[in-house]
Design brief:
Helices cover about 15% and strands about 50% of the residues. β6 and β7 form a beta hairpin. It starts with a helix and ends with a strand. It is mostly beta strands. The chain is built from four helices and 13 strands. The chain has one domain: Outer membrane phospholipase (ompla), Chain C. The protein has a twelve-stranded antiparallel beta barrel with strand order 1-2-3-4-5-6-7-8-10-11-12-13.
Length: about 250
């Protein structure tokens, strides 16, 4: 797990400690397998603490934190920052050529998120800019979310798409002329890209302050991504499992 994510978790804990009285506060842990389109030698597994906090307009939800600008039973709008976990460690490249290019770093995105709840589901969207200027790019997300409750068990299927502008796509999947000279890979300069996805999440409330959840996500990469010399997969599966305790 990148060091900057642990710095984010530590910062979130500090914010939680400094926040006013919380209406809802929980701590826990989450872990999973992170699917990547990159041609790497090893699978990517991760684990980290979970922090959940609702304190008036301020909130923390795992690797996302924000400030509600508007919120009611049907519509919410927030200024938000979140951890974007796409990354490539060149040392883990599957071939000598891939190990000769630059690593791609994960980053923090800062922007806005919104959600509108209807009787048939919820429409959720998010847009942000690379706050650490790794790519200086822009990313957005749009999804349609359903929710079905079965007593203490909640099932949450969703479909949607991620959009990256050209700068974001080129940073993570492009190959610069300097990298091509070092690695003998062809140069690659993609434009913006859209990555569709579908997911199924679940949550189980044990009614004794404990909560467990999980999510399986399948992403389908377009030609903009799969044509990259760094990539050898057309789709990836991501798995997340977690547990938390509410105080």
């Amino acid at each position: 797990m990148p060091v900057r994510l642990w710095k984010w978790i530590a910062f979130s804990l500090l914010l939680a400690a400094m926040s006013p009285r919380a209406d809802d506060f929980s701590l826990g842990a989450q872990a999973g397998a992170y699917g990547t389109a990159y041609h790497t030698r090893h699978a990517d597994y991760w684990g980290l603490p979970y922090i959940g906090l609702n304190a008036g307009r301020f909130y923390i939800d795992g690797t996302e934190a924000g400030w509600w600008l508007a919120k009611d039973d049907a519509f919410s709008f927030a200024a938000t920052a979140w951890y974007a976990d796409t990354h490539f460690d060149a040392a883990d490249g599957a071939t000598p050529a891939l190990r000769a290019v630059d690593s791609r770093r994960s980053t923090m995105m800062a922007g806005f998120s919104a959600q509108y709840i209807t009787p048939w589901g919820a429409l959720a969207g998010k847009i942000g800019h690379d706050a650490l200027n790794n790519s200086n790019g822009i990313a957005a997300n749009l999804s349609w979310i359903l929710m079905k409750e079965f007593g203490q068990f909640t099932l949450v299927p969703a479909v949607g798409a991620d959009w990256w502008n050209a700068r974001q796509t080129r940073y993570y999947y492009g190959v610069s002329r300097h990298e091509a000279d070092r690695s003998q890979l062809p140069t690659y300069r993609p434009g913006s890209t859209i990555v569709p996805f579908m997911l199924v999440g679940f949550n189980y409330d044990w009614k004794n302050s404990w909560n467990t959840w999980g999510q399986v996500t399948q992403r389908f990469y377009p030609h903009t991504v799969t044509a990259s010399p760094l990539v050898n997969r057309q789709s990836v599966t991501e798995l997340t499992l977690g547990v938390s305790y509410s105080f």
